[in-house]
Write a structure and sequence with these properties.
By secondary structure, this protein is of the alpha/beta class. Helices cover 46% and strands 14% of the residues. It has two domains: 212 residues, NAD(P)-binding Rossmann-like Domain (Rossmann fold); 35 residues, no CATH class. Helix 5 links the parallel strand 5 and strand 6. The protein binds nicotinamide-adenine-dinucleotide.
């Protein structure tokens, strides 16, 4: 589905980012893997592509414009094009709306919103510049990893909820603005995915309720599914949205939370 396509994934060192890297690699893509943590993305690269033929691991903080631009530049040097971007890197700071420090909201907006906007802008400029040279399709595709928390208000997540709602809104705006450049922009809204982040949420709640964190985590599953979602399952939906088969889906925020969110 993504043969000969070059895709940049942010936050690819673990969780949904790593699962997306696996799914995109299986679909034939060449991958620029980025994260704060270089060792983690090198481990992702070794796991999915032991030969190293179709992966390039580059440390980049999504809040650092120069680092993101350098990652795109190095990726294009190696693979000649950029056809897709997955804005997966994100942070969650649990805390009550009454007492959370302002810096928690700042950090979530910086990574989850500014980071996404920065990566979108830098990637789109590359996609527009490269046009349809070398006979390939012009434009490209962007998938932003929002959250069902961008649609539903969860307690102790007000800042995160707001940041993910902003990602959904940004997705609609960019889809409308960049359609003329052949760039398709969509979002996915996960929930209940078995990753370190979900473990941290369970640990935070358990510390306050006295529950066992492992037992609590085991209950944090989508009701209709009755189990956690695995990162690669989200990755496969992202792969579809990156492909030309999803050309008729534009500016949408697709729930990938096992049916928990009905809208
Ligand atoms: N796990 C879930 O159930 C769930 C649900 C809804 C949405 N999400 C979203 O999915 C995405 C991935 O979540 P996850 O559960 O895999 O999280 P995770 O915390 O397990 O992994 C996030 C990765 O992003 C990287 N990262 C964090 N800040 C970064 C930055 N500034 N620059 C570059 N990389 C950075 C981390 O190093 C880490 O490798 C996030 O955007 C998250 O909000 C997750």
């Amino acid at each position: 589905m993504l043969n000969n396509r070059t895709i940049l994934i942010t936050g690819a060192g673990q969780g949904i980012g790593r699962g997306t890297a696996e799914a995109a690699f299986d679909a034939g893509a060449r991958l620029i893997l980025t994260d704060l943590n270089l060792e983690a993305i090198e481990a992702t690269a070794r796991l999915i592509d032991p030969e190293g033929d179709r992966t390039l691991a580059i440390a980049a903080d999504v809040t650092d414009k120069a680092a993101v631009a350098a990652a795109v530049e190095r990726g294009v040097e190696r693979f000649r094009r950029l056809d897709g971007l997955v804005n997966n890197a994100g942070v969650l700071a649990m805390g009550s709306a009454l007492h959370s420090p302002a810096r928690d909201l700042d950090r979530q907006l910086a990574v989850n919103v500014q980071g996404v906007a920065t990566c979108c802008r830098i990637a789109a400029r590359q996609m527009i510049t490269q046009g349809g040279d070398d006979g390939q399709d012009r434009g490209g595709a962007i998938v932003n990893v929002a959250s069902n928390a961008g649609k539903v208000g969860y307690p102790n997540m007000a800042g995160y909820n707001a940041s993910k709602a902003a990602v959904i809104s940004l997705t609609r705006s960019l889809a409308a603005e960049w359609a003329e450049h052949g760039i398709n922009v969509n979002a996915v809204c996960p929930g209940g995915v078995e990753t370190p982040m979900l473990g941290e949420v369970a640990a935070w709640i358990a510390q306050r309720t006295g529950d066992d964190p492992g037992e609590l985590l085991a209950t944090m599953t989508p009701a209709q599914l009755g189990r956690h979602i695995q990162p690669i399952e989200v990755g496969r939906v992202i792969v579809f949205l990156l492909s030309t088969q999803a050309d008729i889906i534009r500016g949408q925020a697709i729930n990938v939370d096992g049916g928990d969110t009905p809208y």
